[in-house]
Amino acid sequence: MENKEIFERISSDPDILHGKPCIKGTRIPVYLIVSLVAEGVSIDEIIKDYPSLTPQDIKAAVKYASKLCEYEAYAV
Fold it and tell me: Could you tell me which Pfam families the record lists for this protein (predicted)?
């Protein structure tokens, strides 16, 4: 998945969830999707609970989060 594809699926609007990154056209935040994936919830299960999502949306959310980590500099 290329960066262009990621940003076609992710948006940040100050009027929606205080600007937190969400899947475009939804109020489903990236952090929620990434948390579910981290807990081992399958793509199919996520889509069952959030039917407006597609597998590509979920992959874009994970890729978006990985890009943030790639460029974020902080001490652990």
Answer: DUF433 (PF04255)
63 falls within a domain: yes
* Distance (Å, whole) CA 38 – CA 24: 21
pLDDT (tens, 9 = 90+) of the chain, 76 residues, equals 778 888 899 999 999 999 999 999 999 999 999 999 999 999 999 999 999 999 999 999 999 999 888 776 665 5
Radius of gyration of the chain (CA): 12
Question: Which domain covers residue 62, as residue numbers?
Answer: 3-70
